[in-house]
Write a structure and sequence with these properties.
CATH architecture of the largest domain in chain B: 3-Layer(aba) Sandwich
Number of strands of chain B: 14
CATH superfamily of the largest domain in chain B: P-loop containing nucleotide triphosphate hydrolases
Number of domains of chain A: 1
Distance between the termini of chain A: 25 Å
Oligomer: heterodimer
Number of domains of chain B: 2
Order of helices and strands of chain A: HHHHHHHHHEEHHHH
Strand order of the largest sheet of chain B: 6-7-8-3-9-10
Structural class of chain B: alpha/beta
CATH topology of the largest domain in chain B: Rossmann fold
Order of helices and strands of chain B: EEEHEEHEHHHEHEHEEHEHEEHEHH
Shape of chain A: elongated
Largest sheet of chain B: 6 strands, mixed
Strand content of chain A: under 5%
Helix content of chain B: 25-40%
Number of strands of chain A: 2
Helix content of chain A: 55-70%
Largest interface: A-B, 24 and 31 residues
Number of helices of chain B: 12
CATH class of the largest domain in chain B: Alpha Beta
Radius of gyration of chain B: 23 Å
Structural class of chain A: mainly alpha
Low-confidence stretches of chain B: 300-310
Strand order of the largest sheet of chain A: 1-2
Mean pLDDT of chain A: 87
Low-confidence stretches of chain A: none
Radius of gyration of chain A: 21 Å
Chain lengths: 293, 310
């Protein structure tokens, strides 16, 4: 299994198009960082328009590396599924398109092993992409903007997190995001089994994620309890929960606390359930599939 | 002992029956020719032998083991090139062979892998990307990959497809080498029937997924009935005379000044004498032994004739 995983990773990272994602992420992060470096105050004024009328807002202190990383994460984690689908959607369909799938299946490895190796290779790619994102979004922002207490704006309420209490939250958020994006990878991987050209699964994955995200964000009471809790897209942004801490009697954030950990764990469970369902279904379909490509 | 034993193999794709109750056996050391027109079911059968397609019915035994229950064990001793030599174009020849050696569970040193490429004349291009290779080079690399695990059974599906005459000759020599010098069993399908005639010792002809004939190539060609082409000076007159005689029933077709007959070997002199008696000048008599005509002799379908003319 380890040998197959190494082979799959070798193939992924030998393809020039794999690096498009890393380049795209670097470009987007640098553009956001440059924009905030030169006009961050305007951005913050827009963000805090509801609060700044009532309170004095020290923009220079607020605009630090932690906040910039939060802004980047909030912006990019919606776009990254497209980049994940580029690789995961290609896992089986791309091989069928190249004609190499029939060669792989005639080798003395089981189809289940082959599929698991391909999926785990997609997960490794996803995690590496997130590590790359973390390095650029967090480390580079800390370098460019410095560090200070982090301000989180939620429903027109400002919450302040001590600078010493931030880093672990980012690690947890990136960990959660890797599960969320691996679920997207699992969906693309599942759709890839049915196609003999990777464009189909990539476009289908993006379409599904976009449609379900719109459904998750719609403010229709009927869907709130009946549909939304069951959509994986409703749980993809639950990483933000790590930045919402419990407050003490004075309304100050308690260091090391998370306001609603059970909700985060529940969301994590939903994502894992979807991931397992997608991968298991992909394996079942592939085991029975006639390779005609 | 049989290297391959296929019993009552069937494959249905919805309403279409691609393979219909096919049974055959390949002996160890055979170069076994697998023939049939396009769509006859050759590739489907080969894909079932390689576990790419699940049979609808029937049994496959390879090296005396059931393919379904001993898949890995059998595939470890099998190498294959299926139709086009599709490989990872963005990888080099060396990276491709190294990758598939690992997948086959084989540990080969760098030198051993280079030796494998040397055997097919690709050592100088070992570090060239496959997308810069000609079809012939890709085919040689595909064969090298098929042989990387020293398989006892080599399955080649249409290996000469798209190759130039030199490439076809190279494949032919390689197959003969694999059988004569290395003792491997080779199953080879091709629509270049003359190629099969030159390399196979046993063969199977299938049509519409069914077995038409199976046996030794030598014995199958010993059939008394054969196809003979008579080239006449006056073909129009010859046609008239034949149509009025008892030879009419042996007449097959006419192409310009050549009249083709399907008749018993011993009757050739008698037909020639008949032409002489009727003052028809015979320019040449050419018995046609090719497998293609043998195949055509088994079927009267015009569809087959057209298919093989193309």
């Amino acid at each position: 299994m380890w040998k197959l995983l190494k082979i799959e990773l070798f193939k992924i990272f030998k393809r020039p198009r794999t690096y498009i994602s890393f380049g795209a992420i670097a470009a987007m992060i640098l553009i956001i960082q440059l924009g905030l470096k030169f006009d961050g105050k305007s951005y913050l004024q827009l963000l805090m328009s509801g609060i700044s009328d009532s309170f004095y807002v020290p923009y220079d202190m607020i605009l630090n590396g932690y906040l910039v990383a939060f802004v980047i994460l909030n912006t990019l984690l919606i776009q990254v599924p497209l980049l994940i689908a580029l690789v995961a959607g290609d896992a089986v369909a791309g091989e069928a398109n190249m004609g190499t799938l029939r060669l792989l299946v005639t080798k003395p490895v089981s189809r289940t092993e082959l599929m698991l190796a391909k999926f785990f290779a997609s997960v490794v790619y996803t995690v590496l992409l997130l590590i790359w994102m973390a390095l650029l979004a967090l480390c580079l922002s800390m370098l460019f903007f410095g560090t200070n207490d982090m301000l989180v704006v939620r429903n027109d309420v400002m919450e302040q997190i001590s600078r010493n209490d931030v880093l672990w939250r980012y690690i947890a958020a990136f960990g959660y995001a890797s599960v969320a994006l691996s679920t997207v990878a699992a969906l693309a991987f599942f759709l890839s089994v049915f196609a003999e050209n990777s464009i189909g699964p990539i476009v289908s994955t993006i379409s599904i994620v976009v449609v379900l995200t719109i459904l998750s964000e719609m403010k229709i009471p009927l869907y709130d309890d009946t549909v939304k809790p069951y959509l994986f897209t409703s749980h993809m942004l639950a990483w933000k929960g790590f930045f919402y801490s419990k407050a003490n009697g004075n309304g100050q954030a308690i260091a090391g606390s998370v306001e609603n950990m059970p909700a985060i764990l529940r969301s994590l469970g939903v994502l894992l359930a979807y991931m397992i369902a997608f991968v298991t279904s992909a394996i079942i379909v592939f085991r029975r599939k006639d390779i005609l490509s | 002992m049989s290297a391959i034993k296929v019993s009552n193999l069937c494959k249905h794709f919805n309403e279409l029956t691609a393979v219909d109750g096919l049974s055959f056996s390949v002996n160890e050391g055979d170069v076994y020719g697998f023939l049939g027109q396009n769509g006859a079911g050759k590739s489907t059968t080969i894909r079932m032998l390689l576990t790419l397609i699940e049979p609808s019915d029937g049994e496959i035994e390879i090296f005396g083991l059931n393919l379904h229950s001993h898949r890995k064990e059998i595939l470890r001793k099998t190498g294959a090139v299926i139709e086009r030599p599709d490989l990872y174009k963005y990888l080099t020849a060396f990276e491709n062979i190294s990758l598939f050696a690992q997948m086959s569970g084989i540990r080969l040193s760098r030198k051993e892998l280079m030796d494998r490429l040397e055997q097919v004349g690709l050592s100088e291009r070992a570090h060239g990307k496959v997308n810069t290779f000609s079809l012939g080079m890709k085919q040689r690399l595909g064969i090298s990959i098929a042989l990387v695990n020293d398989p006892q059974l080599v399955v080649l599906d249409e290996p000469a497809n798209g190759l130039d005459p030199q490439g076809i000759a190279d494949i032919r020599n390689l197959i003969l080498h694999l059988s004569n010098h290395e003792g491997r069993t080779v199953l080879v399908s091709s629509h270049l029937l003359s190629e099969i005639e030159l390399i196979a010792n046993r063969m199977l002809i299938i049509d519409h997924g069914k077995k038409m004939v199976e046996g030794s190539v030598q014995e199958l060609f010993k059939t008394p009935e054969m196809i003979v082409e008579f080239q006449a000076v006056n073909a129009d007159k010859a046609m008239t005379i034949i149509s009025e005689s008892s030879w009419q029933k042996f007449f097959s077709k006419r192409q310009e000044d050549t009249l083709t007959f399907k008749l018993d070997r011993k009757d050739i002199p008698a037909l020639n004498n008949y032409f002489v008696e009727k003052e028809i000048g015979v320019l040449s008599i050419r018995p046609v032994h090719s497998l293609e005509n043998y195949f055509l002799s088994l079927t009267s379908s015009a569809q087959h004739v057209e298919a093989f003319k193309n």
